[in-house]
Amino acid sequence: MSDDGRRKNPLSFFFLKQRHHSVPTKKNPSSSNIAKPKGIFGAPLEYGAECGSITPRGLQVPDPVYRCMNEVIQRGLKVEGIFRLSGAASEVDQLCRLFDTPPTYGKYLDLSSYDIHAIVGTLKKYLRSLPYPVIPTAYHEQFLAATNNIQQLAHLAMRQLPRAHFILLYTIIELCAHVQAHSRINMMNPEALAVVLAPVCTGLDQSLRDMFVLKNKDIVTDIVQANARWTDLWTRMIQSHKELLDIWSIEQTRLPPVVVNVALPNNKMSKSDNRSPSSASTSKQCGVIIMRKRGGQHYQRKHTSWPMERRTCLTNDDYCLVNPASYDILSVRRRTQSMVNPSIAPI
């Protein structure tokens, strides 16, 4: 089917092959021959995560997700209709532009003056912009088949989804848990949240918008039925958020260590690395901090056998995202130096 045909087809989300890239898998999250885009809106999730932030649990997520989630937790949990009500379109567009601007992509953006509904709208708009939804199309049938089995859903997400997509799903369910703790005030029960999140996180959102202008009743019926199935699945996941998060937290210790490109502490930096804390740095100026959760299964393994990942370093104070209470900082490597043991003061 041609690109034009797929754009016009409201059921394009049912196709296993996406429009521009191969289907993401655990071994091949994104095609290596695709040039990195300048912005993170509309870019593959892996690119947004590369220049994102590390959560207190050590998970790497894009900043539109991390910053908006934190703002909701700080001042949005007791707001009636959170996630359901829309913010001003102009404010949402402004926030999206700021989060899409290099080199920091909104990492240090002050969100305190923005309406909380606009902040949630920005988060939803970022999720909609992903070329592959939070739960990619290739995994839809597996997830829907496991709707009534939470343990199967938990292990399916953990072991089958591409890592960046699993981490994003984990983060969204964690945010839902916070919202549910105040559901009597914010009036957002599991089903109300699922009605909002199911289409956004599965790629059904655009099809639901398009179905009002469709004349084919069969297609409209298929869209409505698919949305109902996903809403039911998301309702069950949100209702069982504690069980999901418990399973995922245990399984997290089996994941590879978190590896973050960061600027070295002042006492480890050369004279040529005298940059201000807020100035952007290039990858050649970065060190690499290798961390593993304390009590992890392979904590004693030698660094020569550790899996390695890369993350763009934006500023000197990125290393402060490491929380020594949860992680041991094992080593720092400069690209031009051998491995050294750092001494970083607690945050």
Automatic annotation (TrEMBL):
Cross-referenced InterPro entries: Rho-GAP, Rho_GTPase_activation_prot, RhoGAP_dom
Coiled-coil stretches noted in the UniProt entry, renumbered to this chain: none
GO cellular component: cytoplasm
A Pfam family per the record: RhoGAP
Tagged with keyword ATP-binding: no
Alphabetical keyword list: GTPase activation
GO terms, biological process: signal transduction
UniProt-listed CDD domains: RhoGAP (cd00159)
Domain Rho-GAP per the UniProt entry, residue ranges: 43-245
Position of the signal peptide: none
PROSITE patterns documented for this protein: RHOGAP (PS50238)
Gene Ontology molecular function, alphabetical: GTPase activator activity
Name of the protein described by the UniProt record: Rho-GAP domain-containing protein
